[in-house]
Model the fold of this input.
Amino acid sequence: MTRNEAIVTAKGRQWKIMLVTARELGSDRLGDCDHPPGRHPTMRVNRNLAPRLMMETVAHECLHACLPELSEEAVTHAAKVIGFALYQLDFRRRQVPSRKS
Done:
């Protein structure tokens, strides 16, 4: 089992990051970010992406939340660099032990 949600703070607001199915996201998207952020801002990322692409997509959506004034081109470029760096340093999703009741 892996963790599929996280809470982060960006620009003084709490954001939920959710790893969701392609069906929940839309088959043509890797991720999305509420813009403008509503009452409960959320970023969603396809949970079935390959590790490097998932890192890049999470970085991409976090950049949108942190720096909404950046162009899509700047966000895409920075996310590719960040995702590649994390991948090269062997960062990966970890398995979370299941809770036994």
In short: The CA atoms of residues 59 and 79 lie 5 Å apart. The beta strands are 5-10, 13-20, 31-33, 42-46. Helices lie at 22-25, 51-66, 72-88. The chain has three helices and four strands.
